[in-house]
Every structure is written in C-alpha cells, then in structure tokens.
User: What shape does this take?
Amino acid sequence: MDLTLILTLSPSRDIPHSKASDLPDVFTSYRKSVEPLREAPRRVLPTPNRLLPQPPDVPSQSSPFSIPTSLDGIISALHKPITSAPFVKDEPSSIPPGTKSAHPFHGGSKAGHARIDHLIQSASMTNYKDTRNGLLGTDFSTKLSAWLALGCITARQIHHDLLAFEDGTDGGKWKDIEGYGKGENRGTAAVRFELLWRDYMRLCTAKFGPRLFQLSGFRNDDSYRWKMPSKAQPELEEMLTRFLNGTTGTGLIDASQRELFLTGYTSNRARQNVASFLSKHLGINWILGAEWYECLLVDYDVNNNWGNWQYVAGVGNDPRGEARVFNPIKQSFDYDSDGDYVKAWVPELRGLEDLQKIFQAWKMSDEEKKEHELEGQDMIEKPLKRIDFHVGRRGGGGGQYGGSSRGHQRHDKAGESGRGKGGGSFGARGGYRGRGRGDKGRGQARHGRMDKASHFD
Ligand SMILES: Cc1cc2nc3c(=O)[nH]c(=O)nc-3n(C[C@H](O)[C@H](O)[C@H](O)COP(=O)(O)OP(=O)(O)OC[C@H]3O[C@@H](n4cnc5c(N)ncnc54)[C@H](O)[C@@H]3O)c2cc1C
Assistant: This one.
C-alpha cells in the first residue's frame, strides 16, 4: 500500500516509508522522519460543491431490520440499544448532581469548526501543552476527537487554522489572542504532535492489518495468560462487571468509567490509567476493555482505540511494553491533586477529605465508613486491587483477587527479546528489537516500573 494515500496530517513531501511494511514500529522514529511537522502536512482540499449521488443499488434491509424514514425514527433507532436493556449490572444511572460533562458538544462540521475557533480565541490552543493532562472541564484538551472520528473536520483543517493564527494570516480575527502572529508555540506544536499520533495509529493498521484486533497485538506476543471471565469463573465475571460499572474501589478508575458511561467521553490521562488497570493490574484480557470503549466512546475510532489499548496492554508498539504500568494512585495525586475529579463522578466519596481515602476508599476505618454511611459497599469492603501508595514512596500490593503483578501466569519465553527506546522494529515472532535501554528480562514482573512517563510526555 502506498502510505501517502492515507496520510491525514502528514506529509506533503516525500517520506522514507513508501510502503506500509516500512513504517517504523516506534512512534519516535516515525516522528523524526516527518519533522519538521509544521511544514509537513498537505494542503486542505476544497469543499466539494456537491455530494456524490447515492449508489443506485443500495440493497433493501430484510426483516427484522428496517431503515427509519424520519429524523425521530432515526433517533429512536439509535437509542434502542442503550435504552432497551441495561448494558451492565448496576450501571451508573445519571450524572451526579453538580457534575458537568467534559464533552457537551453537538456534532456536525459547523460545530467542529466553531470549536477550533473557540480553542484559538480562548488561548486554549496556546496553553494546551500545560493543560492537556487535565480531567475536569471542557477546555483542558481540544475535545476535537469526536469531530475527527466522525469526519466532520480533518487534521489538516486544524493544522491550517493553527498556521493562520501562528502566521497572523487570518485577516485579523484572532489578533488580540496571546501568541498571534508569533509562529508555532508550545501549545500549537503539542496539538500537531498529538495529531501525528493519530496518523501513526492509522498507519499501524495499514501495516499490521488484523493484528490490530488480536490478543497478541502488533508484537505478536502470546506469552501472557490473560484472565478471561466466563460463566465457569464467576469471580472473574464479577471483577469485570465491577470494572465496567465503576465500582472497583480505585477512585480514578471508577470516576473515569462512570464518566465514560454517562457522557461517552473520558480524558486521555484517564483512558491510559483505565487500560493499564484492566490489563496490567487485573490481568484481564485487554480486548474486553477495547470492546467496552468501542461501545461507549463518542470519539470511537478503530485505529486509535485498538492501537492505544494494545499499546497500554503491552502488546502494541510501546517500546517499553510490559514495563510501563500506571499507578492510578500516584496518577491521582499528580493529576487530581484535590480529589475533585473522583468526587465529581463518585459522589459517595464527596464527604471525605483525606486524599488517600478518596483515591482508595478501602483505607477508611470502620468509624469513617459508619460516619459516611458507606458500610457494606463492595468498592470499599472488597476492592479489586489494593495498590498501596504513600506520598513520597511507591508501593505495590496484593489485591482482593490476589497477586501484586498481573496475577496471571505467562508462558515462559524468557530471553526472546530485548526492549529499548528509539528506532527499531518487532522481530519475526513479535518481540521488539530496539536500540538503547533494554529491560531487565522478560521474566520480570509486569509492573516492575510504574509510570515513569506516558508515551506522550
Ligand atoms: C485506551 C485508549 C483508547 C483510546 N481510544 C480512542 C478512540 O477510540 N478515538 C480517539 O480519537 N482517541 C482515542 N484515544 C486517544 C485519546 O485518548 C483521545 O484522542 C483524546 O483523549 C481525545 O480528547 P481530545 O480531542 O481532547 O484530545 P487532545 O489531547 O486535545 O488531542 C488532540 C487530538 O490528537 C489526537 N490524539 C490525542 N491523543 C491521542 C492518542 N493517544 N492516540 C491517537 N491520537 C491521539 C486526537 O485526534 C485528539 O483529538 C484512546 C486512548 C487510549 C489510552
């Protein structure tokens, strides 16, 4: 496949990878090959003045399917799967009082372009680098993902609006905004960087094809015995249900899962933690998490969703693979330093003041449980995982369901591969062959090192 056919943001000039198979397995190598990114994207295509006619041979739907003929009919057909039966036992019922969706937007191209304009006008683009890891509010990150995923706007259009702002060629509309006419700034550069990730995930699909959906991932690594909930293992089924309905007992995970369920959106920081929690702390088949996101995300994109899930699960193209584990308690202290995000989405915990207990409610004493009327709740009495973290030191710990690492056995393929940073590619059997630092060997527990940095840091 000619890669230039599918590139969305980059590049206009020749790149060294003309075939999908030439794409580097590590994002950094790809990025370096297309930099300077600001000069790379192709021009925006003109808006077509008419839509192509419908193909003449659209087959009619056979019973029980039918195509609605009115807008109301379409809306009710779209609502049907989510209103006819609960998705999951004890699902969250409504947005908690006082909490607002981070993604209260309407669809359509006009609304997407208005959002880009708002982000530039409000200096959110300029400040993006400093705010992008936020958890609450509409403007900490661009929230452009849904419009991109649905084809309402394109990455190139975002890039060209940013260029007009940076070069001061917009006709003066944004002239009073910080950074106007002063070239690329930290914020606008960071937005382009993230959009390049989006491109890269798409290109990985071109390269790896069906491996996007395989448990062994792009790495073709089948060395882990993933836990698979089934009727025969009711304790695993319960674990999965509680992961889905946001009652794990780990505040950040529960807040994010409830937010996702009730609004269709949760931030990138939260997504990384949720994916890491399911795959690395609980050791459950990561595909179940990817499918859940596929059901619920308003910005669902096949490449970004499945590529990111396998990246975090350690079978995709993260050069640190299994060694990267997010400690959701440390992450809460770093990114939810007042506990506001957890309290917004897990209202049961609003009466608490001690952050340790907001982030891990099982740490409450019996008196505290009584005082806050929280006795007997599974998320407090039976947390899925006790991750013992204290400010100033790191720690791990066994969970309700046992085990401090992934908690599941792995096939032993020790010594099969090294790991490293920088350029490199997966070996024939999927093991990563990298340059630079290798990890200490694959026999190491899967969360040997906790979240030194995310792949976007
Ligand atoms: C487990 C997991 C699943 C994900 N599933 C999806 C998905 O289905 N659809 C989706 O669009 N994004 C997905 N992402 C990527 C990212 O979380 C979202 O793009 C981002 O949170 C959307 O919010 P935003 O537009 O405010 O992002 P911003 O931070 O404003 O980023 C700007 C744009 O850059 C792109 N981008 C940002 N982060 C990433 C990333 N990690 N990978 C690829 N592109 C990125 C998106 O197009 C985004 O709109 C997933 C990430 C994880 C960890």
Summary: Residues 132, 141-145, 148-149, 191, 194-195, 197-198, 201, 267-268, 271-272, 275, 293, 297, 299-301, 304-305, 308-309, 312 surround flavin-adenine dinucleotide (CB under 6 Å). The chain has 17 helices and four strands.
